[in-house]
Amino acid sequence: MQALLRELRERVRHAHESRTPLRLRGAGTKDFYGERCEGQLLELHGYAGVLAYEPAELVLTARCGTRLSEIEALLAAQRQFLAFEPPALGGDPTIGGIVAAGLSGPRRARAGAARDFVLGTLLLGCDGELLHFGGTVMKNVAGFDVSRLLCGSLGILGPVLEVSLKVLPLPPAQQTLRFEMAEGEALAAFNRWAGQPLPLCATAWFDGQAWVRLSGAASAVRASAQQLGGERIESEPAAAFWRSARDQTHPLLSRAASLWRLSLPSTAAPLSLAPPAAQLIEWGGALRWCATDRPAAEMRAIAAAAGGSAMHWRGGASGSRFHPLAPPVLELPRRLKARFDPHGIFNPGRLVAEL
Amino acid sequence: MPAQPDDPVNDPARNGAGDEPRWSELAAQPPSPERARAVELALRERLPADCVLSREEELRPYECDGLAVFHQRPMLVVLPHTEAQVRDVLLECRRLDVPVVARGAGTGLSGGAMPHAAGVVLSLARFNRILEIDPLARTARVQPGVRNLAVSEAAAPHGLYYAPDPSSQIACTIGGNVAENSGGVHCLKYGLTVHNVLGLRGYTMDGAPVTLGGRALDAPGLDLLALMLGSEGLLLVITEVILKLVPKPALAQVVMASFDDVGKAGDAVAAIIAAGIIPAGLEMMDRKAAAAVEPFVQAGYDLTAEAILLAESDGTPDEVADEVAAMERVLRAAGATAIAVSHSEAERLRYWSGRKNAFPAAGRVSPDYYCMDGTIPRKAIGQVLKAIEQLEHKYQLKCMNVFHAGDGNLHPLILFDANQSGAWQRADAFGADILELCVQLGGTITGEHGVGVEKLNSMCVQFSPAERAAFFAVKRAFDPAGLLNPGKAIPTLARCAEYGKLHVHHGRLPHPELPRF
Ligand SMILES: Cc1cc2nc3c(=O)[nH]c(=O)nc-3n(C[C@H](O)[C@H](O)[C@H](O)COP(=O)(O)OP(=O)(O)OC[C@H]3O[C@@H](n4cnc5c(N)ncnc54)[C@H](O)[C@@H]3O)c2cc1C
Asked: What is the CATH T-level fold of the domain A173-246, as seen in this structure?
């Protein structure tokens, strides 16, 4: 690994000096994700391996190329897990790619996002320097929180070579409930329930059915299931449903030719799209997947009016994927990028076309 | 980081080639009377009369934050009412090249809000309104000068509360909490400030408005919101914050366990987590701390114990019953000599009262105390507490420990008498030794109180020159002129060179075989 590390540092330094753009890549499960980006391929999946895992410390540190499957197996053996449920997206992503993309699964609204579990990172700076930010302890306010800034940065500030993540014990019990509900009714219920002391860990709505997953102590799950009612779903079909939402194998997510991902306040009213789009709603109403080929401008306007943003996840013509940022909002990211990567060698344009 | 003059105080363009004035020294240099008058006039022209304080007796309350050993009278204090006035203050100070230090309640414990002699303190005290509580969306939109506890009080009628609960919560402000990424007793289960802030608004030193995050859970682009948490007032002046509210649990109970050895108590903490339990709070108090607080609060602490653990469980009644039983089992197996469980809300609060009043109690048993804030891996708790005992002998000062054990966040309280010559210097060196030990064990020099001016030297131990340059790069991106809370949080190269301690690489000193403590 030391030889590979030397080589990566050398390549980055050389790219910086020769102003050669690099396209960072882990397992490639997110090749489709983000804006188009050109550059020499910098493969990171080889820099792999779990460096430290101590269950009682609730921390796992791994090199960026380590596969999600390896990490999940290791954690499961100790009855622990990654509580943000990173999506596998039909492959076996690297932990570096997971952090760079910053995507989270069905538990996000209750448990937190990927960035909430990032404790520390090792960044490969453009001049080949190795930079540690954060660390492996639960609480740490020494220095700016660059680690969380890197989460979701899609590599534009440099390759994350190592990451330390907070892990949590697996909840001892889980129960999924299903309700026949119209969209508006489900949105209201999700928000109402989230304000009550219930062990609610995920919610979803699709095609007239609301799904609710409870998880926690067996007694709490039992009592809450009783209180909420609905149809109890067996653990296997329940797991399959949440898996399909998490990994995008759900028919709505996998089959739509043009798929939009709207991030909205959870209380935003049902979308008024004409003709109505098939939707999968997650995160208590805060995430709405829409299968629609409505024009981008319309989707962005709808999301903005509701207080959120719209990402063109898949399909459609060319054009930007992410919700565009107004020029003044771009100013600070532009200055950060200019300081971390003055020659613009890291994933140019992948997160924001201008950066 | 690329070689750029990222270090604002060492930037020749700013300070004239060759010389390297330090903000920490500049901080104490008073302005010339003409300069002070010119700045005051400029600000008075922009602000209503009640917004500018300049008389000595008016300025005195702003000399320091909660860490009074670092104090400095500012040139001026401004107390704007509106965002437009905040922007005007910043624009004017930027134009006149005047340092600005934002201030909440001044309860900070690292000198983060300590003023500059030639600078302006920008107090957010008048930004004290809760603008909106949305019970359905479970959010609170507040001004930064709102007190932490006031948010939970306003949310209570809806069965909701704001989870991060620093011990200072009756006084400290949300703006200060965001700037420090403050924690509290319940952060183990419910997260730090960073996990409970959805969005904020603020102004850069250049007077440019910035809105980050919002009511949606994702925002496009870089996650600058996360970067603001714990940025110690160096990047933005925060003028509005959207907070996440969570449902109040149906029931909470606390288990109190005694141990005859601090090492065993430390191991018990790790054992609880290893058993798959995340308590709502998991705090530890050593014998000296219990003895200091007991006469004060009469909580019924076991004064024969070397260490006391307080472990809270919350949730539905059945869930709490199960968890309490499980914790009792683990604690007994870990060698607890006595265990008590609270059976009423009054009793629960009584058990916590000593923990919450540890600071005032320290003030009662000693003329002065110095609170440290390192974080370590849980497994090292016993080892560190024993090392601290040895340092007590080395420095001839007593130290008591009350801390967030579940997070491994230590708060050694070093007792000293500032009137004794050299006592503060000894306390300071004692504290620095503890922090260095935290870094050696793979931890950090500050878990929640921030670096401020206090831990600048210790930053040299934790971060390499390139890493510190990266921090300056962030600072410069937000504040090219380096005027917003300058001289705090990030030490200059020159300062680290002078401090002369080695950077501990990744929890390892260059020569680990050499005995150090
Ligand atoms: C008795 C006691 C107990 C404490 N217990 C805890 C605890 O349990 N956990 C914990 O984390 N801390 C604790 N603290 C420390 C302190 O209360 C926190 O750091 C708190 O968040 C500071 O808030 P403040 O409003 O007093 O901020 P101040 O002290 O006024 O300022 C702190 C920093 O924030 C900046 N700042 C303030 N407002 C703004 C703003 N609007 N925009 C930009 N920057 C701003 C300042 O410039 C400064 O750098 C304790 C302190 C005391 C005295």
From this structure: Alpha-Beta Plaits (3.30.70)
